[in-house]
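Supplementary Text 2. Reproducibility record for the structural model of the 364-residue chain.

All settings were left at their defaults, and a single model was retained for analysis rather than an ensemble. We include the record here because the model underlies the residue-level annotations in Supplementary Table 4.
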Amino acid sequence: MSVDPSTMTDAEKTDVIRKTILEEGRALRRRHPWLEKHQNLIGASIMAVSLLGMIASGALYVIGTIPWWVCVPVTAIFASFIHELEHDLIHLMYFKNRPWANDLMLALGWLARASTVSPFVRRKLHLHHHKFSGTESDLEERGITNGERWGLRRLLMTGDNMMAIFLRPFTMQRAVRQYIRSQKPASRGEARKMSLQQILAYAPLGNIYYLLFHSWVVAHVVLFTAQISGNPLTLSAELSAAMSILNTFAVVYMLPSFLRTFCLHFISSNMHYYGDVEARNVMQQCQVLNPWWLMPMQVFCFNFGSTHAIHHFAVREPFYIRQWTAPAAHKVMREMGVRFNDYGTFLRGNRFYRETSAEKRQAA
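Retained model, structure tokens:
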């Protein structure tokens, strides 16, 4: 290439990458004008097809046409399309001039994926994430375990957003405070309003989902424990009927949500760096995480590990465009020094460097 990356600042490298990605997108749209002309229709169609796919998969299970082990992954895949769509909607890539349509699609997406934070709360969290990714106030990524040391606790938190709060209440409390402080509230009243918004971030759909999901898990643990201990429990007709309904709901909705969430959060929390990155330095925010052995997880989060870093450089490109332009994007990103498959992140607690500044001071 005509420029030597070793002589460039991170800001200059970021600019080269961004311009290359955007030009690749423009070239793609020149070859396929319908991509730009019908962008709203494309987004609405993806939402409709994904919702119908989830409903059809669940219905086929209920009538006995497909087994649970087909229903769960198929439904999770359709839900992963909706997650990517929600992400684009947050950036106003569809129906920018029709807020009611944008909000309607966000609401439908939340209904399909109630295990997530409200998209109307997430919008502010996510836009803040782009500016301060990997810093102490990046509440969005901290919420999905980014920056935590790997172990059993992080594993339990990865697929369950409520566990991610309950198992580290003080960490999350500090993260919320840092986020609110970064928003520079004009008064204590405004700060309290922001705090209340975070407390209610899952209300009402997420709270209902996790109440049902945890009840289902606890019920099966109790029944299984009683069975293996030689004292099986006999449920009343009413409880048996309720468990049957809950089991069906688990297959058609809760287990797909858990599978999708675990795969997405595992990849996202490990492809983002945390703790020792410079604010607004995109070169330090992400790596490309796309080894062959993560392909089973990538299926349930629309190849997130391979393409999300592209989004950090070119924010306003829809998710399906990123898939299309990924080869060219990866080429320039690699040339500019963006990391690819940095497995050391699993051992460093997602730190960009081998040691944090605090750890270096302690060692000294």
